[in-house]
């Protein structure tokens, strides 16, 4: 299929999944994950109406941002972020979805103050016991939110999670359910609106929609098989 056909197919699948879950498709956005695909592919996706793209690696985001500096793309970082990469995130990204520790929040705050800007962020929550998964333990999140609310540079919009890598759909569903319940708890306890739940990828977005996801991070279903990582 062409890129246009793949995007149309995914949009239709998302619409149907929302319909099955009794949800308004307008409540669920698709965030294309363009990691490992070149800037020319991103430009093709822009022609299909996309303006936000997610990257795992800061260096790859920077390269594409420079190659596409004639466009109005909003770049989103979804991968683990080292503090020594904060400067580039502040310069090029409109959102960070992998805020997972106080050290990182402090480093971002310092750079953002210097730049005179704010950054939209999501707190990454570890919703499974897999050692390969990163994120903050759910029980640590409420106190973390209380601390970072003092940082005017960070606009905390909600949570992101990566579900367990398993064929057991109920275990995947519980990951999403756990984060949604945590979001509801934090909203009740803190009185802060946390409207964004970034949950679900190419293989599990239907389950994520059922459990309240508002944003799907989709890569291979949109772009096809990924090139070899550079």
TrEMBL record:
GO terms for molecular function: pyridoxal phosphate binding. InterPro entries: Ala_racemase_N, PLP-binding_barrel, PyrdxlP_homeostasis. Pyridoxal 5'-phosphate (PLP)-binding protein, which is involved in PLP homeostasis. Keywords: Pyridoxal phosphate. Pfam families: Ala_racemase_N. This is Pyridoxal phosphate homeostasis protein. Residues 8-227 form the Alanine racemase N-terminal domain. Gene3D superfamilies: Alanine racemase. The modification N6-(pyridoxal phosphate)lysine is found at residue 35. Its cofactor is pyridoxal 5'-phosphate. It comes from Advenella mimigardefordensis (strain DSM 17166 / LMG 22922 / DPN7). Belongs to the pyridoxal phosphate-binding protein YggS/PROSC family.
């Amino acid at each position: 299929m062409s890129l246009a056909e793949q995007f149309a197919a995914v949009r239709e699948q998302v619409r149907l999944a929302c319909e099955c879950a009794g949800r308004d498709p307008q409540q669920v956005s698709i965030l294309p994950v363009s990691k490992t695909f070149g800037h020319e592919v991103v430009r093709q996706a822009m022609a299909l109406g996309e303006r936000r793209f997610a990257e795992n690696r800061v260096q790859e985001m920077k390269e594409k941002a420079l190659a596409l500096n004639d466009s109005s793309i909003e770049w989103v970082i979804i991968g683990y972020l080292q503090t020594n990469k904060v400067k580039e995130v502040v310069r090029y990204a409109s959102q960070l979805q992998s805020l997972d520790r106080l050290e990182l929040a402090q480093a971002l705050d310092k750079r953002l103050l210097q730049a005179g800007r704010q950054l939209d962020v999501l707190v990454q929550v570890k919703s499974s016991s897999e050692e390969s998964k990163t994120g903050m333990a759910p029980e640590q999140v409420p106190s973390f939110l209380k601390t970072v609310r003092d940082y005017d540079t960070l606009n905390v919009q909600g949570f992101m999670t990566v579900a367990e890598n398993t064929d057991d759909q109920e275990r995947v569903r519980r990951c999403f359910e756990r984060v949604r319940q945590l979001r509801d708890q934090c909203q009740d306890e803190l009185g802060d609106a946390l409207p964004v739940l970034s949950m679900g990828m190419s293989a599990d977005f239907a389950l994520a929609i059922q459990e309240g996801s508002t944003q799907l991070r989709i890569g291979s279903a949109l772009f096809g098989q990924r090139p070899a990582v550079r």
